[in-house]
């Protein structure tokens, strides 16, 4: 082991040459590439930062717009709720009114139906009563009943008030004073005389009575003088009863 | 392997210069490095391939190591320090190739590198702060320490050369002895140790060189900082 000066010097030169070679072919190119890449990275970072800032601006802008839209939406929803509530209340009121009207109409219809039903029942009762009375009176009709009805007619003529008598006398003043007295059975002479006297007394003039028999009267009398007619017989009374029942049914 | 091959021998002569196997091996290493760098420089792209990634990784690692020691002089120190590391790693690992001896097993080569480190310390120191101000740091903190500074310069340079030479030569000698005694496959663990030792020695040599050079630069920086602090305190008063 000894120091070789030739090797020593040549190694120094060799190393210096190696430093030059590495600097020329390794350090500079590699550093240049690294610098270019670093520059590119910085440019991309700057561009990315710029894009990020613009994205943030856009995000803030869109967030602001979104908030505005949300506010407008809430406002529109509130106004819509108000309109819906008003419309609902309006429709509810209209429905309540319509329901009240329908209820009233139904009640009226029900009342009418009840009235109709009641009227029918009353009419039916009247008709049945009339029919029952007619049958009863047909079976009960006879000279005795006619006598009693004649008495009742005489009593009724005697009980006429003055106003009615005056009207009767005025109506029959110019007419032919022939009275037609109809009866279901032959009248007794006493009753005939009494009727003639009573008519003459009431009308204060001579009245000629014409007596006829009409079996359809069932029992009682009918006195006709001109347009005036005085009934006291079962047929007319039953007809009047039935007529009253029909009038009630027609009403 | 003959015993005579353990030490570098002269292959031929060029005039007064004796060309040894160490020099030839160094030329081969330089040629290989040049070829690799030339091929690499032709294919450099912004999107690196595998080789470029490796090269950039080596470059970045060396830069970071220098920046950790001398952050203000990275570009100035990078060529020298990085060249030391690259050359020493390759030169130390050359011993693994059969028939080729590591140049660093030759004291002449390690001494040449140590002398280059010694000179570079002064070169970078004078270059950064001037001759007078650089020499002034030998007198700090007191002129009494000047002999110790000078002795330190010599001894650390000798230590650099001998440490690398001793380690690499001993590795090769141990591998040779085990090969002679144990057979063909027995030195494989020693060869693995050779790889680790080669990397460690290259790192130690380059790091020490970096520390020596940075020490010369930072002494000036420390003085400037001290002066700035004194000026600042004077203005406050």
Automatic annotation (TrEMBL), chain A:
PANTHER family: ATP SYNTHASE SUBUNIT B', CHLOROPLASTIC. GO terms for cellular component: endomembrane system; plasma membrane; proton-transporting ATP synthase complex. Residues 41-119 form a coiled coil. Belongs to the ATPase B chain family. The gene is atpF. Keywords: ATP synthesis, Cell membrane, CF(0), Coiled coil, Hydrogen ion transport, Ion transport, Membrane, Transmembrane, Transmembrane helix, Transport. F-type ATPases have 2 components, F(1) - the catalytic core - and F(0) - the membrane proton channel. F(1) has five subunits: alpha(3), beta(3), gamma(1), delta(1), epsilon(1). F(0) has three main subunits: a(1), b(2) and c(10-14). The alpha and beta chains form an alternating ring which encloses part of the gamma chain. F(1) is attached to F(0) by a central stalk formed by the gamma and epsilon chains, while a peripheral stalk is formed by the delta and b chains. The keyword Membrane applies. The keyword Ion transport applies. It is a single-pass membrane protein. It comes from Microbulbifer donghaiensis. The chain crosses the membrane at residues 6-27. It comes from the Bacteria. F(1)F(0) ATP synthase produces ATP from ADP in the presence of a proton or sodium gradient. F-type ATPases consist of two structural domains, F(1) containing the extramembraneous catalytic core and F(0) containing the membrane proton channel, linked together by a central stalk and a peripheral stalk. During catalysis, ATP synthesis in the catalytic domain of F(1) is coupled via a rotary mechanism of the central stalk subunits to proton translocation. Component of the F(0) channel, it forms part of the peripheral stalk, linking F(1) to F(0). The b'-subunit is a diverged and duplicated form of b found in plants and photosynthetic bacteria. GO terms for molecular function: proton-transporting ATP synthase activity, rotational mechanism; proton-transporting ATPase activity, rotational mechanism. CDD domains: ATP-synt_Fo_b. Its main location: membrane. InterPro entries: ATP_synth_b/b'su_bac/chlpt, ATP_synthase_B_chain, ATPase_OSCP/dsu. This is ATP synthase subunit b. It is found in: Cell membrane; Endomembrane system.
TrEMBL record, chain B:
Keywords: ATP synthesis, Cell membrane, CF(0), Hydrogen ion transport, Ion transport, Membrane, Transmembrane, Transmembrane helix, Transport. It is a multi-pass membrane protein. Its main location: membrane. One of its GO terms (cellular component) is proton-transporting ATP synthase complex. It is found in: Cell membrane; Membrane. GO terms for biological process: proton motive force-driven plasma membrane ATP synthesis. InterPro entries: ATP_syn_F0_a_bact/chloroplast (IPR045082), ATP_synth_F0_asu (IPR000568), ATP_synth_F0_asu_AS (IPR023011), F0_ATP_A_sf (IPR035908). The chain crosses the membrane at residues 20-40, 77-101, 107-126, 173-192, 198-217. GO terms for molecular function: proton-transporting ATP synthase activity, rotational mechanism. HAMAP family: ATP_synth_a_bact (MF_01393). Key component of the proton channel; it plays a direct role in the translocation of protons across the membrane. Belongs to the ATPase A chain family. This is ATP synthase subunit a. It comes from Microbulbifer donghaiensis.
């Amino acid at each position: 082991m000894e120091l070789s000066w030739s090797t020593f010097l040549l190694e120094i030169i060799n190393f210096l040459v190696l430093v030059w070679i590495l600097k020329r072919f390794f350090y500079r190119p590699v550093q240049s590439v690294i610098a270019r890449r670093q520059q590119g990275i910085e440019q991309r970072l700057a561009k990315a930062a710029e894009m990020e800032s613009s994205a943030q601006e856009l995000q803030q802008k869109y967030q602001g717009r979104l908030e505005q839209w949300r506010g407008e939406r809430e406002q529109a929803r509130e106004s819509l709720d108000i309109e819906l509530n008003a419309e609902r209340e309006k429709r509810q009121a209209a429905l309540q009114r319509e329901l009240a009207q329908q209820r009233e109409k139904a009640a009226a219809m029900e009342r009418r139906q009840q009235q109709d039903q009641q009227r029918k029942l009353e009419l039916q009762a009247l008709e049945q009563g009339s029919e029952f009375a007619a049958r009863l009176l047909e079976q009960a009709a006879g000279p005795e009943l006619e006598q009693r009805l004649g008495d009742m007619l005489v009593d009724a003529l005697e009980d006429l008030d003055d106003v009615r008598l005056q009207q009767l006398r005025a109506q029959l003043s110019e007419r032919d004073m022939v009275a037609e007295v109809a009866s279901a059975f032959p009248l007794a002479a006493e009753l005939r005389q009494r009727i003639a006297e009573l008519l003459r007394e009431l009308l204060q003039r001579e009245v000629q009575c014409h007596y006829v028999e009409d079996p359809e009267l069932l029992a009682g009398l009918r006195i006709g003088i001109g347009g005036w007619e005085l009934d006291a017989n079962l047929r007319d009374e039953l007809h009047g009863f039935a007529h009253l029942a029909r009038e009630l049914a027609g009403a | 392997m003959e015993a005579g091959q353990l030490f570098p021998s002269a292959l031929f002569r060029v005039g007064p210069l004796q060309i040894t196997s160490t020099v030839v091996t160094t030329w081969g290493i330089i040629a290989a490095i040049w070829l690799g760098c030339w091929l690499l420089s032709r294919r450099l792209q912004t999107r690196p391939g595998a080789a470029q990634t490796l090269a950039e990784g080596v470059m970045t690692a060396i830069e970071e190591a220098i920046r950790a020691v001398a952050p203000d002089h990275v570009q100035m120190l990078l060529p020298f320090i990085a060249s030391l590391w690259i050359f020493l790693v390759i030169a130390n690992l050359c011993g693994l190739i059969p028939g080729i001896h590591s140049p660093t097993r030759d004291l002449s080569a390690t001494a040449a590198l140590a002398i280059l480190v010694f000179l570079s310390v002064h070169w970078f120191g004078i270059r950064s702060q001037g001759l007078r101000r650089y020499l002034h740091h030998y007198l700090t903190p007191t002129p009494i320490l000047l002999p110790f500074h000078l002795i330190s310069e010599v001894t650390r340079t000798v230590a650099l050369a001998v440490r690398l030479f001793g380690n690499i030569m001993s590795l090769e000698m141990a591998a040779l002895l085990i090969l002679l005694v144990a057979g063909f496959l027995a030195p494989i663990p020693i060869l693995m140790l050779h790889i680790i030792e080669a990397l460690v020695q290259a790192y130690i040599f380059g790091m020490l060189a970096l520390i020596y050079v940075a020490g010369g630069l930072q002494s000036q920086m420390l003085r400037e900082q001290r002066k700035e602090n004194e000026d600042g305190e004077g203005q406050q008063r």
